Amino acid sequence: MVLIDGKKVSGEIRNRLAEEVQELKKKTGKTPGLATVLVGDDPASAVYVRNKNKICGELGFQSFEQKLSSDTSEEKLLQLVEELNANKDIHGILVQLPLPDQIDSEKILQAIDPNKDVDGFHPINVGKLVVGNALLTPCTPTGIIELLDHYDIEISGKHAVIVGRSNIVGKPVSMLLLQRNATITICHSRTQNLEEVTRSADILVAAVGRANFVTEEMVSEGTVVIDVGINRVDGKLTGDVDFEPVSKKASYITPVPGGVGPMTIALLMENTLKAFKESL
Q1: Contacts from 103-110 at CB under 8 Å and sequence distance 24+?
Q2: Is the pLDDT of residue 128 over 90?
Q3: Tell me, which fold does domain 28-113 have in CATH?
Q4: Of residues 66, 96, 227, 240, which has the active-site annotation?
Q5: Which residue among 3, 115, 117, 264 is least crowded, i.e. fewest CB within 10 A of its CB?
Q6: 202 catalytic residue (yes or no)
Q7: CATH topology of domain 139-261
Q8: pLDDT band at 179, cuts 50/70/90?
Q9: Is 96 in the active site?
């Protein structure tokens, strides 16, 4: 079994991005700008945003941090998004989810300029992803593909089973795998004979949001197991995969933490750089 090291791979991506940013700055006198918007004081969201802004500094990006109170109105947030859309120094806009109840998340995500939508969630970018010509693709799914490529794991012709059908991971990763000529099965809460389906996987992506949901009975010998889950159990982070027993059967497996997680922020930065280069 090979442990897939997301920290190492994301570190290599970040080093490459930092070098490219310096080269572009010399040529153009400009740097990529990422705006993060945090509404309210959700502790986990605050940590995510702080990490993103810290990495912006490390890579030589400009960071535009916007903090709003939890009672902010939808109208005020839409107004802020419009201002960020119009700001030529900003190339990526990230509104941290979840948003407070009084704000319609869908409406906010649709208000972001698709060319600055570094999360890849805007309907225009989702449509481009489906037809196979998206510049900005969702960060976590793209990070999964990067990990598979880094470890020279064959995707073409393989059966990829995705457990979970969210718009953030399940659906987009299925599209990205399909574009790489994998055969796709998406499983969810209504899937019958789930164990039978998951055992047929060459590549198994667990993105269901339930701790230790994927057990050793659900995995065949030699399967590549990608665990996207982040769950807190007894104060410790754990994935959607029951790691110890499953790792004995897997050929490759991502740990939690240290697997897919670090890739998400690295790909967010890569998307911001892509959007910056497109703006040039």
Answers
A1: 103/39, 103/72, 103/73, 103/74, 103/77, 104/74, 107/74, 107/78, 108/74, 108/77, 108/78, 108/81
A2: yes
A3: Rossmann fold (3.40.50)
A4: 96
A5: 3
A6: no
A7: Rossmann fold (3.40.50)
A8: very high
A9: yes
